[in-house]
Specification:
313 residues; alpha/beta; TIM Barrel; 10-stranded mixed sheet; 3-stranded antiparallel sheet; binds iron/sulfur cluster
């Protein structure tokens, strides 16, 4: 990703736990838990501080935090955690949330995240959840008015296709960016089958509106830059990277573990979310980032977070 290529940015994905208040029928069993399994607040804050120390030793001074779950906003220390991330240089926070929290909580979120230069919310719409699409839409609109960049993410379950497409149309008409996602069966089983018409709609149905003036004020290149063997340089959005077949980097030198790290809900620290490498360590037993880029040993890089790390032949 160009932001990582041209800025001293370090990427952190930190899973606070797998607990979620929804139990959607299509969610992977490994991706959520009905039991509150949160990593304690002080361990999260210490872990993030240690990552920043080691990243700074690698020369990185800017940070992008992807604080994830389960449903991350249900972590009892979530607001304290994000308020603790006061870096002197550029720093931004991203979260994927079902936004089931009430309005008062989101007002506190806006206050706790005011020090970030960029706040990005991927609002996941689940029609099996506990709120109407009108309530969901009102919350996203309000957050947008507070300066939060947002995108509504909808996993297109084939059995519920027409209803979800109507929901997406409703959100789109209210000025939201929409990302329609293929349902993935998990455990390496891959995506479910779709008709050719559905596959086309997944990528073309809701073209993104021009970036808002607020977004344009932040001069951060978020697309992907590809340097080809013949010297040509092209760019593309992240959603097009795997579709275009640019996801096989085995043997390449990759910045995952050096300019990026992923902490799982069980406290294991890995170079990326889906990389097959041995873990870098654990929060309780200690971990060590790579001092330089290291070869990729994973046949396919198919996680959108992992794809953001720079990779060289
Ligand atoms: S799987 Fe992706 S992120 Fe992990 S080492 Fe390979 S190229 Fe890098």
């Amino acid at each position: 990703m160009r932001e990582c290529l041209y800025h001293p940015v370090f990427l952190i994905n930190f899973e606070l736990g797998r607990y979620c208040n929804y139990a959607c029928s299509y969610c992977w069993p490994a991706a959520h838990s009905a039991i509150r399994d949160h990593i304690p607040t002080e361990i999260v804050i210490e872990g993030l501080a240690e990552i920043r120390r080691q990243a700074a030793a690698n020369g990185f001074t800017e940070f992008v935090y992807n604080i994830s779950g389960g449903e991350p906003t249900l972590h009892p220390g979530y607001l304290d955690i994000i308020a603790s991330l006061t870096d002197p240089a550029f720093h931004s926070i991203e979260l994927v949330s079902n936004i089931s929290r009430g309005q008062r909580w989101w007002e506190r979120f806006i206050a706790a995240s005011a020090h970030f230069q960029r706040v990005f919310l991927t609002a996941s719409w689940h029609d099996e959840g506990n709120q109407s699409r009108e309530t969901f839409n009102d919350k996203v609109s309000w957050l947008r008015q507070q300066g939060v960049q947002s995108c509504i993410n909808i996993v297109m379950i084939p059995q519920n296709w027409d209803k979800l497409l109507a929901d997406a149309e409703y959100f789109y008409q209210h000025g939201n960016r929409i990302a329609l996602r293929r349902q993935d069966l998990g455990d390496g089983q891959g995506p479910v089958g779709y008709s050719q018409e559905q596959l086309a709609l997944l990528t073309t149905a809701f073209p993104s509106p021009a970036r808002s003036p607020e977004t344009m004020r932040i001069a951060r290149p978020l697309d992907y830059e590809l340097h080809h063997d013949d010297g040509a340089v092209t760019t593309m959005p992240v959603t097009s990277v795997p579709t275009a077949g640019n996801n096989k980097f085995q043997g390449w030198r990759c910045h995952a573990g050096y300019q990026m790290v992923s902490v799982l809900a069980n406290g294991v620290v890995r170079r990326g979310m889906m990389c097959r490498d041995r873990p870098l360590g654990t929060l309780s037993g200690g971990f060590q980032l790579f001092p330089q880029p290291a070869p990729c040993i994973t046949p396919i890089c198919h996680n959108t977070f992992d794809l953001r790390a720079c990779k060289h032949k």
